[in-house]
Amino acid sequence: MISKRKTYILLFALLWANFTMAQEKTILNSLDQKAEFYGTISKQIWSNPELGYLETESSELLQKTLKDAGFSVKTGVADIPTAFVAEFGSGAPVVGIMAEFDALPGVSQKAVPFREPVVEGGAGHACGHHLFGTASVAAGIAVKDWMQQNKITGTIRVYGTPAEEGGGGKVYMARAGLMEDVDAMLHWHPGSKNDASASSSLANISTKFRFYGEASHAAAAPDRGKSALDGVEAMNFMVNLLREHVPQETRMHYVITRGGEAPNVVPAFAESYHYVRHPDARVVKEIFAKMVAAAEGAAQGTQTKMEYEVINGVYNLLPNETLSRIMHKNLQMVGGLKYSPEETKFAQDIIKTFPSGVNTSPEDAQKIAPFEVNEKGSGGSTDVGDVSWLVPTAGLNVATWVPGTSAHTWQAVAAGGTSIGQKGMMIAAKTLALTASDIFKNPKVTAEAQAELKRRQGEGFKYDALVGDRTAPLDYRK
């Protein structure tokens, strides 16, 4: 026979489960009811793509949405005009949700399954940050409403973080101490699959190397000239030779942003823009020092002068399994995307534009990837990395793009401007909101997540931003 004590325990567990399910349904229903409202906001941002640190209208729209919902908003934080912190509640725990909203240059695209720019050479949301920012705001408001209805103590914050694409907005916000009291930080990112694994990324230092020479007539008096372009090319040649002598996980890539004005004028100024990445920020620093040495040697060999500016520097993501498992559980509960017949046709047409060998189907958008812990980063870099070394952080990817789509492509822009992107955005908002509510309901979570952070940081860790003491490069996209 079951004892009375066990009966009471089972009854309490059942009541608690029903109570929890009711709260979850409240959060999900509130987001479903506002799906069209948030879809309109995301489309406004998509239709007006603004580059890093220039996202004035996008930032103002998200701030207004939060203010109208009852958040207090501080704008221009960390000396960045488009950065903001929106807050509701008081005391611990403090749960943060990060929102991005910057676009990329050169990838303008209409919401159609074939290449057709809105403006030739214009900007576009090829990384889906119009969805990112809107979903994070939606999640923050849903959590705030839930806290009010259930008299939950604590603080919910939404961090408006500009210029993720190479500008490192979060680095300057973290360095300014805006996240020091946060107990758990949540984020997400548009993608081509649904995945809430605890994963890392690549640390990155990006730098502009500028060479200064002396102009001269390239045919009549070449002996009087000192070619700044020779300096750039000599540096790039040595950097390419360096590829053989760095760890195999390293990624180095560059573009020549200025190479001269005319072939018959010896270039007096030239510039190249370099990235160096690796799963470990310490290794990135070491390789970057070799890159600088190559630039110095190139300047000496071409009798030019060289200076460099670190534009951005970000840490690798530090996984937090404690928070990520909660995120994964909620993603499974919410589920993936189910396409309508029209969306399926759009996806099939997009898939036809992929290179041969990309094996995918529209149905893959419904799948949830199995949970994994990936300690070693690969792929891209993100300024979320710096935050994750200071605050327990968890994120997820959602299939806002057609499965198989690569980031930073016209296909990503196209899907992001359709109902496919908006459906994925709401899946992200629901998962973030449910995860935040779980953290508020269980005080043990933040303690466990903090203990894991300390363990992964290692003894004696001290945060030192890879950008040094420079101010945010507010003009890097101008």
TrEMBL record:
UniProt xrefs under PANTHER family = PEPTIDASE M20, XAA-ARG DIPEPTIDASE
Origin organism is Algoriphagus ornithinivorans
Pfam families cross-referenced by the UniProt entry: M20_dimer, Peptidase_M20
Q: Which residues form the Peptidase M20 dimerisation domain?
A: 206-297
User: GO: which molecular function terms?
Assistant: dipeptidase activity; para-aminobenzoyl-glutamate hydrolase activity
Kindly indicate where the leader peptide sits in this chain: 1-22
Q: What is this protein called?
A: Aminobenzoyl-glutamate utilization protein B
> Gene Ontology terms, cellular component aspect?
cytoplasm
Output the InterPro entries linked to this UniProt entry. Answer: Amidohydrolase, Aminobenzoyl-glu_utiliz_pB, Bact_exopeptidase_dim_dom, Peptidase_M20, Peptidase_M20/M20A_hydrolases, Peptidase_M20_dimer
Q: Where are the transmembrane segments?
A: none
